[in-house]
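Schema walk-through. Below, the input block comes first and the output block second. Nothing else is stored per chain. Lengths vary across the set, and this one has 332 residues.
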Amino acid sequence: MQKRKLGADGPEISAIGYGAMSFSDMYGPTNETESHAILDACRELGVTHLDTANVYGMGKSENAIGSYLKSHPGVRDEFVIATKATIRRDADGNRSFDNSAEHLESELDGSLQRMGVDYVDLFYAHRRDPRFTPEETAANLARLVEKGKTRAIGLSEIAPSTLRRAAAVHPIAAVQSEYSLSSRYPDLGLVQTCAELGAAFVAFSPLGRSILTDNPVSRERIADLPFLGQNPRFQEPNLTENLKITDKFRSLAAEMGIPAAGLANAWLLAQGDHVIPIPGTRSVDHLRESVSGAASNLTQTDLDRVNAVLPVGWAYGDRYSEAQWIGPERYC
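--- output ---
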């Protein structure tokens, strides 16, 4: 597995990490045994970066990591672990965001307890709370570095201007946003600003929530997945069009002798030495397909062929519904 740095002064991690939202029930039911099998496979494949959050299954994802570490003494140092906080939900399920120092520390303490660790390697503000300036949020996160509860800090779904302002207060090791062949928004300044400031760009949903794989989620399953059921790209007639277009990508991947998921991640790795995809899956076989992208050094001709079948703006429908857009910063 090739390596990349998690921030200018951060540790070396696997070029492809693992997005542990899949340890929750977000994309279908899972259990601890299945999650532990994924972590076994990560160790076998050289995947060293784990990305989770307190809200993934309301602690279920972090609990799965914690029980694995407890049952495998000495394994903690094999992983670079990131988690996130700031999203609150009320009794009716409505979301709000809290970047206060008190909330961040309290939530991180809960994460540390669930995972059974003394610190995490990276702690993100999951969303920006507009009540706090970027400078204030960075300062609140930096307190947790000073206390030894995290070794580095990051921000998620933010604008380039927010990154610049936060980085003036404390080094930002990583920015996490959706980025893939189906979501190219970060190309409009965020990928470039991360490179300029020495922050890793951690790309979540690098496989377009399965649509960039050889096994896109079926229409029948979408009905049982609330997030996808409300997502414009997975609603008709957009879904039919998106599947039709990505069939060309699947054919190209087969012609190149690589799984579609591997090609999608290889394309991301080619967008900059600081770009780190974090695909999630409940299947060990699908994890292997994703990780295969790290062994594929795409030529410019290869990239041109990929961009020819999936040009910028090809996807039908927005990446989020209006409700799902609450929180991420729009900057262009």
